[in-house]
Amino acid sequence: MAVKGILQGLSRKVNGDTSAAGQNGYAVSDAKLRLAVLDDFERAGIGWIWATDPDGKLIYISSEAAARFDLPMQELIGRPFTSLFEMDTDNPGERSDRSLNFQLKAHNKVQDLTVRFALGRQRDADRQIWLSVSGFPKFDSSNKFEGYRGSANDISVEYERKLVDSRMAEYDSLTGLANRHYMNRRLESIIGAFKSAKRSCALMMLDLDKFKRVNDTMGHPAGDALLVQVAERLRGIVGNRGEIGRLGGDEFQIILPDLDDRGKLGELANKIIQILSQPYPIDEKRAIIGTSVGIAITPYDGVEREELIRSSDLALYAAKNGGRGQFRFYSEDLKDEEEERELLLEDLRIGLESGELTLGYQPVVQASDNTVVCLEALMRWEHAERGPVSPELFIPVAEETDLINPLGEWALNQACKDALEWPATVRVAVNVSAVQFSNPEFPDVVANALAHSGLAPDRLELELTESVFVGDSETTEQIFSDLKKIGVRLALDDFGTGYSSLSYLRSAPFDKIKVDRTFVDSCTQKDQNSAKIIAAIIGLSSALGMETTVEGVEAFDQLEVVRKKGAKLIQGFLYSAALPQHDVLRLVASGEFKIKPEGPEKYRPERRSVFRRIGLIHDDHRYDVVMRNLSITGALVEGLLGVPVDTPVVLDLGAGQLVVGTVSRTENSEIAVEFETPLVSDGAGGLCTRHRISPYALALAGMPLTALAPGDYPHDKMIDGPKSAPQFIQVAVGGQSKAA
């Protein structure tokens, strides 16, 4: 108010004051006193005065302002007033929709507008100057604009405090990432802006696997330290491609504007999973976690914020319940996975009690003479209604509860009992969950299984992954020591997939290393180093006096490579899948316990057998066909006659997925189609297109503007004008033909 009063007094002096105070000669008429009061005001640091000419250039500014800006007065006078500040600065909690520049050009009154000083040689480079600027336009008696008269206050201290308060309200104090409130507001803003522009935005939801175990075994401070490291790794992975938030606990979210390429999204998700799964150093210990990722994309999977979040949540639940350490894209057929998980857990409890679970045994053979030296016990669950349930589905569910301990104890007892009927030269390998291993009573469980079955300890091999090293290292070392005293053998499974596996070999008494199958899958490819890595692991294992098993061998070309690299023990479908106990006993009874390799000469990526009705589009016609198999690069479809080789076609896989391809082979009504662009993984063991037809485009074709439902869209509606005659004859699969 003091600043405004002085300015008004100066204005009256310039324009002529006819007030009573002016008439009776009161102090207002004393120019010297007036200037003295103004000087006192400016020196007091309460604020400073500024004035511009009609062109917006400074004609006056308080000397105290020049000193505060650390600029000589001659550099300020004559400069455009607006050039002193950065425009469009936000007030914490209240945005100014009109910049200072706009207000001055419109000759509007300016009232307490917050701006940031943009010039000068500030003594403290880390501190910024924030000002509250006010001013009013001055006009002469003919209403001609003469410039602005105004004031400003330095509000840097108060404003910085507001910024801190605002940041605390929108950012996570532990990791420095945005919080749920900010991410919701940001996602709402992006989706709203992108709707009109018909742009896409991907949303990733992340959940840390086994984080609770770190809190329980290492303490909450260790859990906090881990979350900080997770945030740092996410920043390094995502960079400037998106915005990262921590929603609370071990939940994270990533917003990725203008990204709908499911190939790139899958690559990013896999990179996140891989890097977040590497060990975390905490207080001279190691913590190991994993992560699961759910992905949804607007407008395909939702056109509102709530829809997109729900879709990514459902995809995350599917990733977690599908075995963890995986990503999933949202699809319309996803169920309420949380409810499904609870039903699965209850069914598993019942199944364990009622004897629905069995063990299958996959042979490990000697490469030199095909003799079986070990059988790995693998759990099998045949549910009365669900049918066969994969261990990748039910083991993670059991690990989240105490059920993993009785489940693991049952498997251990059954495997020891079954192995007693095998030749004494054949060992049995049993997988041990990290949750089982961390139980201090686990060595007693092992000892009891051996005692009850009568199996020699050196015939039992316990397969462990590096996740057993999470938590208290002293407890881990004690369990290792107790197991070695019992006399069982220890194997490190999935070797080579973690950065710190070498340190485990130094610190734990392993007898065997199992080379992960991911190296075998690509060992025959020239542009991969997998064969060299296999050779290096075998050499390292031999130098340490350990055995090595190479797992996942499925074709003779892979067998040839791993043999040349020194593999002595081999496991994989080329020799045998897991066998029930009665088949094992039949082989044993036949004489020598040997299995000859049988299978394809060359390994090729899996071609999935399917029976699925899809659409095939050629010119302006859409035909109904059945897809028999599908791979990354092509498909086999059935249902059309008369299709020449090299015919360009488009396969409509539904849900907006169109695949451009060329007919490479025909035989009767079967057509082989080679894709122009390879498909990508959908994270669930299936394949999908990188891109989809936008619902906005489908809306133009007569479809409602909603997230796409599964199925075929009406291609015919997108064709304008008369249609040509169909060129091919459509036949019903099974032999009954019909007109196209």
Quick summary of this structure?
The protein is α+β, with helices and mostly antiparallel strands and 740 residues long. The protein is built from 24 helices and 32 strands. The strands form seven sheets. It has an eight-stranded mixed barrel. Strands 2-1-6-5-4-3 form a six-stranded antiparallel β-sheet, sandwiched between helices.
Layout of secondary structure:
Blueprint: H1 2-15, H2 20-23, H3 31-43, E1 48-52, E2 58-61, H4 63-69, H5 73-76, E3 85-86, H6 100-105, E4 110-117, E5 130-139, E6 145-154, H7 156-170, H8 180-197, E7 201-209, H9 211-218, H10 220-238, E8 243-248, E9 251-257, H11 262-276, E10 280-282, E11 285-287, E12 290-298, H12 305-321, E13 327-329, H13 337-354, E14 357-366, E15 372-383, E16 387-389, H14 391-399, H15 404-419, E17 427-431, H16 434-437, H17 442-453, E18 460-464, H18 473-486, E19 489-495, H19 501-507, E20 512-515, H20 517-521, H21 530-543, E21 547-551, H22 556-564, E22 569-571, H23 581-589, E23 608-618, E24 621-630, E25 634-638, E26 640-641, E27 648-654, E28 657-667, E29 670-675, E30 680-681, E31 687-688, H24 695-700, E32 729-730
Parallel strand pairs: 12-13, 15-17, 17-18, 18-19, 19-20, 20-21, 21-22
Antiparallel strand pairs: 1-2, 1-6, 3-4, 4-5, 5-6, 7-9, 7-12, 8-9, 10-11, 14-15, 14-22, 15-16, 23-24, 23-27, 24-25, 25-29, 26-32, 27-28, 28-29, 30-31
List its salient traits.
Beta-Lactamase; 24 helices; alpha+beta; 26% strand; TIM Barrel; globular; disordered C terminus; single chain; Alpha-Beta Plaits
